[in-house]
């Protein structure tokens, strides 16, 4: 883990798990072992993630997802 990084538990349903499995079949393998990577490097930046979220939603944020729990 990187300096200051914490391990977190993330609960996922079958739809999310299947989507990740499909992505892993086609994701670039020369970008390291990160799940999501940028075109330029093996790690996608925090600001790029925020840009993507802002493009698709004005309500939900990456921080909100971090604390989201299904009931």
Describe the 3D structure.
The longest helix has 13 residues, at 14-26. It contains three helices and no strands. The protein starts with 13 loop residues before the first helix and ends in a 5-residue tail after the last helix. The mean pLDDT is 80. It is globular and about 35 Å long. With 71 residues, the chain is mostly helical. It has one domain.
State the end-to-end distance.
Answer: 30 Å
Q: Output the structural class.
A: mainly alpha
Q: Tell me the number of helical segments per DSSP (H or I, 4 or more residues long).
A: 3
Low-confidence stretches: none
Q: Assess the beta-strand content as a share of residues.
A: under 5%
Radius of gyration: 14 Å
* Mean pLDDT value: 80
Helix content: 40-55%
What is the H/E string? HHH
Instruction: Give the CA-based shape.
Output: globular
The description of the largest β-sheet is: none
